[in-house]
UniProtKB/TrEMBL annotation:
PROSITE patterns: PROKAR_LIPOPROTEIN. It comes from the Bacteria. Keywords: Signal. The lineage of its organism: Bacteria, Pseudomonadati, Pseudomonadota, Alphaproteobacteria, Rhodobacterales. This is Argininosuccinate lyase. The keyword Signal applies.
Amino acid sequence: MTRIVLILGVMAMAGCGANSAPFTPNANVGLSVGSGGVSTSTSIGASNGTVSVGLGF
């Protein structure tokens, strides 16, 4: 019974990423001036080195 609980615990940790690098947040804000006027851009996201997720505006 103890082995089963131990194995399930290790599998749960591996499944949720508890043994990998934590996600680090990042953000960017941009301002550009051109012939069409001034435009802004913003992006936010997170990365752990292998997986990156983000959203840009």
